[in-house]
Amino acid sequence: MLMLLPPSEGKTAPRRGKPLALDSLSFPGLTSTRARLLEAVQDLCRSDPEHAADVLGLPGTRRDLVDQDAVLDSAPTARADAVYTGVLYDAWAPADASTAARRRSAIRVAVTSGLFGLLRPGDRVPAYRLSGDVRLPDLGPVAGLWREVLGEAALDAVGRGLLVDLRSGTYTAFWRPTGLGDRLATVRVLQERDGKRSVVSHFNKATKGRLVRALLEDGRDPRTAYALADLLTELGWHVETVEEREGVRLDVVVTEV
User: pLDDT at residue 214 above 80?
Assistant: First the structure.
């Protein structure tokens, strides 16, 4: 099983650590695209900080993030699962997980990243700002660059197992899985209130983080979307399955986080 997560916009900048080494990261087939993006982002932030802030979608109060992106190749790094923060990652809380769960996360979790494509939780990266919907002046849309190469890397990681797609809309554009049948489970979280269901960002992210934590702690490795739905039901979730053109959608219905 491979759980594919979105990154977080918020990140904790490491205070110390070795500088970034692209050749040390997982998914080595993505190295050349990573290098192109790294160079483009740094050059933009160094040469024209004001334009860089506009391109990166930063408010005027966060020009410090432009300075941060200007020195990515020399900034200290830490584990990706320590750099990413936010609702999903707080709910997952990998630092507080059991040793077995952390060991499983190394092979069962991958994070989609605007700058790095795919990362494993233990990959060492700096804090950065590059959202998946950014269009860089010389390279074009970030999503388009990754669409060319991400699929092969992700499918190699999935092998004959189950892909659990927990990404948000922005990052689903990086790669849309096809041909996996019931080995693709796309997870949607719905909040139910007064008999009505809706997608609420906070509930969505927090619930997905808790799902990741629960599956890693449990340790079982379902091979199909239906087996995953059964497992989540056993673990106490309310899950409904919907067959789609590509794979199976799992609607996880919650009333509170």
Answer: yes
8 A C-beta contact, residue 175 and residue 154: yes
Tell me how far apart the alpha carbons of residues 14 and 211 are, in angstroms, rounded to a whole number: 27
Distance CA 125, CA 83 (A): 8
pLDDT tens sequence across 139-163: 999 999 999 999 999 999 999 999 9
pTM as predicted: 0.95
Give the CA dihedral 42, 17, 210, 247, nearest 10 degrees.
Answer: 50
Closest CA to 192 of 247, 257, 127: 257
Please state whether 85 falls in left (phi above 0), alpha (psi between -120 and 50) or beta.
beta
The residue type of 177 is: P
At a CB cut-off of 8 Å and minimum separation 6, what does 61 contact? none
Mean pLDDT of the chain: 96
> Token pair of 113, please?
């990243």
Give the tens place of pLDDT for each residue, 94-103: 999 999 999 9
The answer to whether the Cα torsion of 8, 13, 18, 22 is positive or negative is: positive
**pLDDT value at 257 more than 70:** no
Can you give the residue ranges of every domain in the chain?
2-254
Q: What is the DSSP letter of 94?
A: G
Residue 123 CA to residue 109 CA, distance in Å, equals: 12
